Amino acid sequence: GAVVSQHPSWVICKSGTSVKIECRSLDFQATTMFWYRQFPKQSLMLMATSNEGSKATYEQGVEKDKFLINHASLTLSTLTVTSAHPEDSSFYICSAPPTQSGELFFGEGSRLTVL
Amino acid sequence: GENVEQHPSTLSVQEGDSAVIKCTYSDSASNYFPWYKQELGKRPQLIIDIRSNVGEKKDQRIAVTLNKTAKHFSLHITETQPEDSAVYFCAASILTGGGNKLTFGTGTQLKVEL
Description:
The structure holds 2 protein chains of 2 kinds.
Chain A: E1 4-7, E2 10-13, E3 19-25, E4 32-38, E5 45-51, E6 57-58, E7 67-73, E8 76-81, E9 90-96, E10 105-106, E11 110-114
Parallel strand pairs in A: 2-11
Antiparallel strand pairs in A: 1-3, 3-8, 4-5, 4-9, 5-6, 7-8, 9-10, 9-11
Chain B: E1 4-7, E2 10-14, E3 19-25, E4 32-38, E5 45-51, E6 56-59, E7 62-67, E8 72-77, E9 86-92, E10 103-104, E11 108-113
């Protein structure tokens, strides 16, 4: 199947700093990628849709100025958590559809801990 | 928007027994229903999916049924094994040319006991 790679797999940062997470599609091009957030023992909640060549689309309640998304190329999307606070600590997972047919492939996920 | 409900939240079965997880969705336009298995700290893995033009799909020990009229779908795992223990998520979406935005259920923690 298609491969989606995410980096870093875990990161610890101080409150107030910014953290960048990368999501790459390794063997296909993705005009669209999705960013999810998962708190412990909870479901995956869609944060935003990353669109190559245009602005990201954010879900209701997600601050676009805090969670900056850049779809730099057809194989790379980045999520930057700006001015991170402890409540931003979570598991962030990206996903991409290799085709328009449906199946989503997920990255490994990035566990963010803000001290 | 779409809302997906899933139950039970936890399910404990004996090895060899069957497990059933049920989901309901709200948007009648949804036409794609995947099921994901997620082990602790890892990414979700697709185990089976079904589209709205099909009522049932089976892959070895795993099967999914879809009732469009009632807007619910179910995952059936037969002959459960300890390695089936994980969190299972159902999801729903409307497949379009612009991608596949999934709405996930709340998850079911399945424990298969020896």
